[in-house]
Fold this protein.
Amino acid sequence: QVQLVESGGGLVQAGGSLRLSCTASGSAVSLNAMGWYRQAPGKQRELVAIITSGGTTNYADSVKGRFTISRDNAKNTVYLQMNSLKPDDTAVYYCKREGFRWGPSAFGSWGQGTQVTVSS
């Protein structure tokens, strides 16, 4: 059974940067697509970025050019580098090991989430 532990969240001013980490145990992050999602208060959980087992990346339009997803197989960790943060990026960020399908409703394994708060 895979376990995912996120870290790196916190409070940052608009325009600042944070790097989130998702460390896996029980399964290699290189074997499956790995995604970062977020859920703001009163909103549905949404896909932010994903990296496939082959290394292909995809991003939500709202974060393109600002966020970068990457993977360190040796550390069994997936990262989300977030630059030029905006107050609208405030949310709980979740890491997910994807199954055959991607998306917030698709089957997969979730981490516990880490809070990101961007002040204006």
